[in-house]
């Protein structure tokens, strides 16, 4: 079983930055793909970024490429999402997710591939 707790959300002005953290418990963290998803009001949840178990492969949604960076520290059981040049359309609840499969090379962008989810953290970007 894996438990995920996000933190770092808040209110920021457009062009500002935030760093989200996701603290994970569970023995398989260091062997699991991790992802960030987000859900805006009235919209479906969407993929934002993913990172494989070693941190050697990352993938991003087109809407955040060049602005967001996902990283992980397996010694601290934590995954991060650095968000720069934020836009009002980035406003959403951001969720951390873990894939129960281990040693996967390429992170999936599909929500159904992820087995564990955090409670979410709100990010609001004002114009």
Distance between the termini: 40 Å
Q: Whole-number average pLDDT?
A: 95
> How many strands in all?
11
Poorly predicted regions are: none
Which term fits the overall shape? globular
Class based on secondary structure composition and strand pairing: mainly beta
Helices and strands, in N-to-C order? EEEEEEEEEEE
Specify the biggest β-sheet: 7 strands, mixed
- How big a fraction of the residues is strand? over 45%
CA gyration radius, whole angstroms: 13 Å
Question: Treating each run of at least 4 consecutive H or I residues as one helix, how many helices?
Answer: 0
Q: Helicity level, as a percent range?
A: under 10%
Descriptive key words:
single chain; 127 residues; mainly beta; 7-stranded mixed β-sheet; 4-stranded antiparallel β-sheet
Architecture overview:
The chain is built from no helices and 11 strands. With 127 residues, it is an all-beta fold. The termini are far apart.
Which helices and strands, and how do they pair?
Elements: E1 3-7, E2 10-13, E3 18-25, E4 32-39, E5 46-51, E6 58-60, E7 68-73, E8 78-83, E9 92-102, E10 116-117, E11 121-126
Parallel strand pairs: 2-11
Antiparallel strand pairs: 1-3, 3-8, 4-5, 4-9, 5-6, 7-8, 9-10, 9-11
Write a brief caption for the model:
Helices cover 0% and strands 51% of the residues. The protein has strands spanning 3-7, 10-13, 18-25, 32-39, 46-51, 58-60, 68-73, 78-83, 92-102, 116-117, 121-126.
